[in-house]
Structures are given as C-alpha cells and as structure tokens.
Design brief:
heterodimer, A: mainly alpha, two-stranded antiparallel ribbon, about 0% strand, globular, B: mainly alpha, about 70% helix
Chain lengths: ~180, ~280
C-alpha cells in the first residue's frame, strides 16, 4: 500500500471531525423519516476534491461511523460505506479540477456539480440500497424512496455548500502564472 | 457537550475488557445479526444483549434518551416498510395468510407481521451492543484498538485526531455561528430552507478555511516530530489482551459461525414457520 503523506492523515482526521460536527449539530430534519438534510456532504465533496479519493473515502467512513456511534442508534454499515464510496468517487471524478492552481471558473463549477450529482445517485440509489437489501433484507421500493430522498437532498446541499466552498478556496490560492515579469 | 460519546465510567467486567476486544466483538456481533434471518437465533441474541447490559451495570436512565430515539426510529421504519411493500412477507415466505383487510392493496398477513418481527429483532439485537460498546469504551482507547486489530497506525492516528479535534471544532463552530448571528444571519425556523442553507454556508466557509489552516499547522508539527518514520508506534492507552478478552472474542466468532451455519442448514436466509 502506498504510504500516506502526513498532510493527508491530518486532513482525514480534521475532515472527519468537521464532518462529525456538521452532521451531528447542523442537521436539518426532512419530511421523510430517518433521513435529514445534511450539509456535511458538501464538505465531503470539497475535501475529496482538495485531498484526493483516499482522503475522501476515509473522511466519509470515519465521520459517518462516529456520527452513528454518537447517536447510539446502531451503526448502519450500508450507509456508512455509501458515504465512503461517495468520497472516493468524488475524489476520482475531481482529478480534472485544478483547484490548487486557483483555476475554477464556470467550467470547473459545472464539472464539479455534474460529478457530485452522478456520485450521489450512484451512492444512494445503488450502493446503499443494494447493501441494505443484502444485509437487512428490506423491501426494495422503500429503500429506493429513502435513497431518492437522500440523493436529492444531498445533491442540493452539495450544490450550494460545496460550490461555495470551492469558490472560496480557489480564491485563496494564487493562480498559476499570475506573476508577470517587469 | 463534553461527553459526546456517552462514555460511562463504572467498574464492571465489560469495562475492564480491552477496547480492541470490544471492537472485534462489536463487528462480529453486528455481522452475525445482519447476515441472519433465523428467528430463534435473533431472539437469543436479543436476550443475550440485554443480559450483557446488566453485566455492564448500565442503568436504564443512562440511555433513556437514545432508547426513545431508537423506538421512534424502529416504529417509523416499520411503518415505511409496510406502506411501500405490504406483501413483502408473502413474497419471502411463499404463503399468504390474510388476517384482516384494511383498504386497497393493504391487508395484514401473518407473513408480513412475522417479517416485521424479524426486522425489529434484528434492530433489537444490534442496537444494545453498539450502545454497550459506546458506553463502556473510553474514546481515547478507540484509536489504539483500531491499530491492534490490524488497521495501519496512520489511519488509526487519523481517527485519534478526529476524536481529539471534535470539541475544538465544535467550539469554533459555535463562536462563528454567534458572530454571524450578531451580524444578522438568520438560522432559526423563521427563515425558509434555502435561506437557512445559505446562512449555514456563511458559517461553514470561515470554519472550513480556518480548519484547512489548522491542517497545515498540525501536519507541520507532526512532520517535525518525525511522524510516520517507523513501521510501528505505541499507544499510551493500549493494553495487552487478557484471558477474558480472548474468551469473549472466541465466543463472538462462534456466534458468527453459528449464524452462517444456521443459514446454511436452513437452506435459505429466512427461517420459515409457515411451511
């Protein structure tokens, strides 16, 4: 296995802590039971873009597990794994975004949002329900309804929170080739 | 606020088990509960879980809030399952014994009720164990346990960092939130949803950008101290396994095997009393 850099490890730790705090204290209840509109997926998408797929996957896994532990309602591995997969996919999808060089623009934002939408659909309509059907034996229709609700809510919050974060972060980075010779 | 994970310090045999042992048991137990639909086993596991609770000397009032949330969750989940698939039980067990008819496609069948019983049992035998783990394991021992069960110490350290910085980030979140509210950001129910999401972003951006700075500082400090240079590291709260630890892990492994064997002998995942 490839060795992680120290920075990635710290990013995973702090990222998971942020994911936890947002998921635990900023959750907005939604109309469908057992799901809430959670802003933490915007953060997860953003961290995956900046620190790469491995960091994204581990932030999702660790953060979600800690949230489940802290509520004490049992750990729902299917949804925990789906969170991890979202971070992983987002990190892979975002390889083409050049955030570190401060280039984002409209094109970058559109790319970011399309990839986050696709990743959310994969995670909540494929990964989580399939695992739930296999592990808990719950009916497919109900899981798809829950998954659809989660996918839509998460995609909306990611579109708002994630995009804003990307813009703010890209603005703090110096653009490549921004120095001019006098 | 300070006790996010509900750790309750009390002398009991379960508190004395090492964190790594409890983690292994938790994983095996939840896997056994997830794979099995063998009703007698689920009943036995639920009873055992309640007994373990007694042994850990946890009181009902320690966990009454979580238990309340849990009951609401289970009820909602079952209502949802019934609303979407009232005939799921019939599909699984292959017979149809209508008890009474409600309306339209909704009639209550014995098979459906039995399926619901299984779903409830599956929750009822997992949740107490997770609660037990959370209440009896010191969070600072958790990272050491992860390393002990074979997860790379770098990842375990990331977990330790997360646990260490949750209170700090929480405090920072509260500070920024108060500052933004003082500037007129509306976060309460008075604002509509989109508005509230935007208000949340006004807090998140400073919070996350300052956390990114924190990442730089911490990783520099760790690098200066030579983190990641060696193949292994020691943990302040790590403990060696005792005989009781080994016995517990062994019995959970047996439980896991039992669950798989019963499913295999049953010739299918579902224990079927209707045939």
């Amino acid at each position: 296995m490839k060795k992680f850099s120290v920075k990635t490890i710290v990013a995973i730790g702090i990222g998971a802590a942020l994911f936890f705090v947002l998921g635990r204290f900023v959750a907005i209840p939604s109309p469908v039971p057992n799901t809430s509109i959670s802003v933490q997926y915007g953060l997860l998408a953003f961290l995956a873009v900046v620190y790469g797929p491995v960091a994204g996957a581990l932030v999702g896994l660790i953060g979600h597990t800690l949230i489940d532990f802290s509520y004490g309602w049992g750990v729902w591995w299917s949804w925990v794994i789906a969170s991890g997969v979202f971070g992983l996919l987002m990190g892979i999808a975002a390889k083409t975004l050049k955030m570190e060089e401060g280039e984002l623009g409209k094109k970058g934002l559109i790319k970011f949002n399309i990839s986050q939408l696709v990743c959310h659909l994969i995670c909540w309509l494929a990964v989580a329900p399939v695992l739930d059907v296999y592990m808990m034996g719950e009916p497919w229709d109900k899981l798809i309804a829950q998954g659809l609700m989660a996918a839509v809510a998460n995609a909306v919050t990611t579109a708002i929170v994630g995009s804003l974060l990307c813009i703010a972060y890209a603005a703090t980075k110096t653009k490549a080739g921004s120095l001019t010779k006098e | 606020m300070t006790n996010l994970f509900n750790y309750i310090d009390r002398p009991s045999p379960i508190h004395r088990l090492t964190g790594a042992c409890k983690l292994v048991c938790l994983i095996l137990w939840t896997l056994a509960a997830m794979t099995s639909f063998y009703t007698p086993l689920l009943v036995a596991m639920t009873v055992a879980a309640v007994l373990l609770f007694r042994i850990a000397r946890l009181k009902l009032k320690d966990i009454s809030v979580t238990l309340g949330i849990m009951c609401v969750y289970i009820v909602m989940n079952n209502i949802l399952i019934f609303l979407f698939s009232p005939m799921h039980g019939t599909n699984i067990y292959g017979t149809k014994t209508v008890l009474f008819h409600i309306a339209g496609p909704y009639s209550v069948t014995a098979e459906q009720l039995f399926y619901h019983l299984n779903v409830i049992l599956k929750n009822a035998c997992t949740i107490p164990i997770v609660l037990l783990f959370v209440c009896t394991t010191n969070p600072s021992e958790f990272a050491a346990s992860l390393n002990r069960i074979g997860i790379s110490y770098r990842i375990s350290y990331a977990v330790a960092l997360a646990l260490r910085y949750i209170p700090d980030i929480q405090r920072e979140y509260r500070d920024i939130s108060l500052a933004q509210q003082a500037r007129g950001t509306e976060m309460s129910k008075k604002a509509n949803l989109i508005h509230r999401l935007k208000a949340a972003s006004a807090i998140l951006i400073p919070l996350i950008l300052s956390s990114m700075e924190r990442i730089e500082t911490i990783s520099n400090a760790m690098e200066l101290r030579g983190f990641g240079k060696e193949k292994k590291r020691t943990w302040y709260s790590g403990r060696p396994f005792s005989k009781l630890d080994l016995a517990c892990m062994l019995s959970c492994a047996v439980l896991m095997l039992l669950s798989l064997t019963l499913t295999y002998l049953n010739g299918g995942r579902y224990f079927n009393p209707f045939q």
